[in-house]
Amino acid sequence: MANKEDELHDVSRPKSRLGLPLRGSLSRRLLLLTILFVMLSEVLIFVPSIANFRKTWLEQNLGAAQIAALALEATPDNMVAPSLQQELLENAQVYAVSLHRGDARKLILSENMPPEVDAVYDLRHAMAPMLIMDAFHTLFAGDGRVIQVTGVPRFGAGDYIAIVIDETPLRHAMIAYGINIFWLSIIISIVTASLVFFVLHVVIVRPMRRITENMVAFRRNPEDVRGVIAPSAREDEIGVAERELGTMQRQIRATLNERARLASLGSAVSKINHDLRNILANAQLLSDRIGAVDDPTVRHLAPRLFASIDRAIDLCTKTLRFGRADEEPPSRAPFQLHPLIDEVRDMSGANETKIVWRNNVAPDFEVFADRDHLFRILLNLGRNSVQAIIDGREGEGEISLSASRASDHIHIDIEDSGPGLPEKAKAHLFEAFVGSARAGGTGLGLAIAEELARGHGGHIMLLSSTAQGAHFRICIPSENSATSCAEAEAAA
Over the range 242-267, which residues count as b (16 or more CB within 10 Å of their CB) and which as e? Predict the structure, then answer.
């Protein structure tokens, strides 16, 4: 058995994630995401930068062509020798240039047979989206295109200037620029990601790994005081998490130690109660014979003796039943609720008092539940109501029970005219040995009733408790109900 438990622990133990910082861990994901986001940022920067690079390159060519065209003004007829014209065009890297100055004057410098133009671009009114589209068109158009570009001359030298150029040098320059940007982006991404990773690893990941390792170690052996984390002096969220984890671990250790001691004590008490119940059963047989004695004093004290022994036997039985590991699971079956409540009245002791017991459940109201479990629930609540009226109203009062349906839930209401529950009892209503409403009580009745109700998937609620009485509600959902008692209560 020990080996199987160790294997189960090993299966749930995060081995590699705690041992290897860069293998399937938060650190690795952080590094990859940082590189990815930096690269994405570089892409967003590259798109407008490549468009701006193309625009600048074309404007520089326009400026060089403008200088070449202005050389014509040095001649009387705006004409130069063919050899000088070819030299000017080659230095400006254009096939033709046309500088317009008003409607009447043009300076035109061109080869004898310029090539056919494949595309026309106007930089004078081009917006950013259009420049970006033109830049990618240039990148993917291929070599050998001839384009005409129109722009504004520098220094106000004319209305506009147009040139015809080979786009291939521009395309090659843009490709070289893109490659440089790409490698620069890779270097920036790696450096930035490394720095961000290192900082976040030291500030966040490593402290989180320390917390995780501590939680795993504490889960393996919560009783070891060395497993309690020692909080650091940090004031941020990590420091708060460390301090809260340490507090929680200390509380869990204290609770486990308390539960272990209570379990040992409960085992001893159960054994004592078992023997005590047998002794009281024998005492009950003797008390029956004492009741036959003719002595007036004995006859006067005998009923009190009988009641004390009955209460002691009942307490021992409840303690033994509560001390078991768990209750038997409910065996549901349909039955009429009205006769069951009459049985509870007979067993609760209400018949021997002046208490009025009102069974307001319809005779044909059917419940699908475990009859024995529901009887015990109602009996415990009924006895508490009877005892509350006896103690607080001198035995005069009223107990009424009713039932209704809310969605696929059954609601059973128990109302009494007792003095209500004290605040201490409300705070620990369903806790054994601390939730009793009267002095000397154990609180086992409500604890057992709540446990049986939970076995049905239900709940017991205290709807009200005033000086005029208490009102409890038992909620029993159907076997396949998809709603909780709180949802059914809200619907009701």
Answer: beebeeebeeebeeeeeeeeeeeebe
In the chain, DSSP finds a helix count (H) and a strand count (E) of 14, 12
Identify the pLDDT of residue 368.
93
Q: How far is residue 103 CA from its own chain's centroid?
A: 74
Six-digit token string for 455? 């076995």
- Coil, strand or helix at 236: coil
Distance CA 38, CA 36 (A): 6
Helical ranges in 71-167 per DSSP H = 82-92, 128-141
Tokens 């986001």 -> residue: 37
For the chain, first and last CA: distance in Å? 49
Q: Following DSSP, what letter does each residue of 149-217 receive, concatenated?
A: EEEPPGGG-SSEEEEEEESHHHHHHHHHHHHHHHHHHHHHHHHHHHHHHHHHIIIIIHHHHHHHHHHHH
pLDDT lower than 50: segments of the chain? 1-22, 325, 440
State whether 304 and 350 are in the same domain.
no
Boundary (domain end) residue, out of 185, 216, 247: 185
In whole angstroms, how far apart are CA 359 and each of 263, 355, 378, 416, 492?
Answer: 40, 13, 12, 12, 21
pLDDT tens column, 384-424:
898 889 888 787 899 999 999 988 899 999 999 988 888 87
| Whether 82 and 157 share a structural domain | yes
Whether residue 211 lies inside any domain: the answer is: no
Domain that includes residue 345, residue range: 326-491
| Same domain assignment for residues 251 and 118 | no
